[in-house]
Amino acid sequence: MGDIYLNLNPAVPQISGQSDKSKINLRYVVIEPYVSIHIFWNPKDSELNYEVEEPLLNDSEKVFLEKLEKSIREIVNIEFASGGDKDQLVSYLDKTTRIVISELGLKIEQESYNKLFYFLYRNFIGLNEIESLMHDYFIEDIECNGVDEPIYIIHRVFRNIKTNVKFNSIDKLANFVEKLAQKSGRYISYASPLLDGSLPDGSRINATYTKDVTSKGPTFTIRKFTKVPWTPVQLIGLKTLSPEMLAYFWILLQYKSNILITGGTASGKTTLLNAISFFIPPEARVVSIEDTRELNIPRQNWLPSVARTGVHVGDVGEVDMFSLLKNSFRQSPDYVIVGEVRGKEANVLFQGMASGHASISTMHADSINTVIKRLQTPPISLDPSLVSILDVVAIMTHALSEGKETRKLREIVEVVDVKSDGTAYTNTPFVWDPAKDNFYSGKTIKIFDKIEKRYGISRQNLLKELILRAKLLYTLFKKNITDYNEVQKIVNEYYKNPADTLRQFGVM
Predict the structure, then answer these.
(1) Averaged pLDDT for residues 476-492
(2) Beta strand pairing call for 152-155 and 139-144
(3) Cross-sheet strand order for the sheet of 25-31
(4) What is the DSSP string of 81-121?
(5) Fewest beta carbons less than 10 Å away: which of 174, 175, 287, 353?
(6) What is the pTM of this model?
(7) Which CATH class is domain 232-461?
(8) How far apart are CA 32 and CA 470, in angstroms?
(9) Distance from C-alpha of 115 to C-alpha of 101, rounded to nearest angstrom
(10) What is the chain's mean pLDDT, rounded?
């Protein structure tokens, strides 16, 4: 038999949305040459369907597959291989399969072997029925609601779609949830039926294990990790925010301001946080703290920390975000990034802000009033004097634009002062108008007063910088310069020699 060919990273196709969903009918490959995705309008259901098209096995091939899986499982245990080089694991599985075929005396043609090997790869090294979904660049979330329920996905272009993938056995689904736990280095059982962790590629998992917790049986939700984060220039292309907003964040981060990004679930908070982290000065040391790994910051001098759950009884070995955050201030950070503040760690974060450590974080809240109230009430319970150390709140939102679901930076609100009674004086320099789908800037930027007092830079120069940087970012967008490394290089060059960088791109 010849060499096996398995391309896990085929070229990503160009897909554009359509206002008339009934005309959608497209295919693209996610695992070459074995798996294609078919997205089409189903008139029976009056909705879009997402079908995974895998190789079809005849009866004899199904028997072969069952024998091979049983024998391979007895010889080696690579079923829960977490991490490691996938190419090496594929090569190892290929050699092992050929040995088993020889020992069992099976006669398998090359064409059949190729199809069988795909399923062996999928079930031993990959993530079984959802492996193809994990390789679809356009999928953001994968949602399983229980046994005999179709898995739903959130597609970057078409949003919520029902798939033809499902688990038909409660035992099979329970075993799969155990596999997710093992791949994420966590533990799940009847005694501890909730799972919150990250896969080796960074994708976030939340799962349940028993019918006692979720009546339809085990469930899981996977938030897929973007290996290469969205650049600020790409967010301009997506109309998530304006070049002026990005230039504003660029100045804030240069001058060590404290930023809180808020919004609902999956509103784009972490995406924005990753994007504006491009603007952190290249020489700065960054320390990040998360409960599960989602951040991907484009720099070398970055120390990422992730909280760890305890082992079984008594939370032995637990390292929570509160402990990590306290420890981070001993690591000489210029910037501290906290994935999400929810409880007592917020007190440490704001104490750090008060001692001069620039901080960026996210929080679930849909307005500036909600943010101020959450920070001052249990379980956070910050003193109003500490809340006033926060400089800016950026509020992300889901929105419908031209019939398509998008994410928008709805408004940027500056916290000017918080009185002793908890009332806040704020200013809104940037806002999104949903009626016209345009971003508008106000006449006053209060944060520039703080920067002027701290660093002695005139408001006039800051406003000039805002305009120049906005023009530079818009020029990068117009020239389609969106590459992760190239954008970071240009930002770093601007810090070293702004005049040359502006001249290079014809910005005056």
Answers:
(1) 94
(2) antiparallel
(3) 25-31, 35-42, 47-53, 159-163, 152-155, 139-144, 219-223, 204-208, 194-198
(4) --SS-HHHHHHHHHHHHHHHHHHHT----HHHHHHHHHHHI
(5) 175
(6) 0.79
(7) alpha beta
(8) 41
(9) 14
(10) 89
- Bridge-based pairing state of the strands 404-418 and 392-401: antiparallel
CB 37 within 8 A of CB 52: yes
**Token pair recorded at residue 299:** 């720099």
Taken in order 195, 198, 199, 205, the sign of the CA dihedral is positive
> Which residue did the predictor score with more confidence, 117 or 315?
117
How many other CB atoms sit within 10 Å of the CB of residue 111? 10
Per DSSP, helices labelled H in 141-214 are: 170-183
Confidence of residue 200 (pLDDT cuts 50, 70, 90): confident
Phi, psi of 102 (to 5 degrees): -65, -45
Residue 297 amino acid letter: I
The token pair that represents 505 in the structure block: 């791109």
485 CB neighbour count, 10 Å cutoff: 10
Pick the CATH number of 21-223 from 3.40.50.1820, 3.30.300.20, 3.30.2130.30, 3.30.450.380: 3.30.450.380
- Work out whether strand 286-290 and strand 302-306 pair parallel, antiparallel, or are unpaired: parallel
Q: Exposed, middle or buried: residue 201 (CB in 10 Å: 0-12, 13-18, 19+)?
A: middle
> At 109, which amino acid appears?
E
∠ CA 475-477-479, nearest 5°, is 70
The pLDDT, as a whole number, for residue 75 is 81
What is the pLDDT at residue 295? 81
- The pairing of beta strand 424-433 with beta strand 438-441: antiparallel
Write the pLDDT tens digit of every residue in 83-127: 567 788 888 889 999 999 999 999 999 999 999 999 999 999 999
Boundaries of every domain in the chain: 21-223, 232-461
Neighbours of 255 (CB within 10 A): 19
CA-to-CA distance for 478 and 106, rounded, in angstroms? 59
In tens, the pLDDT along 271-308 reads 999 999 999 999 999 988 887 677 888 788 898 887 76
| CA dihedral of 389, 418, 420, 258, whole degrees rounded to 10 | -10
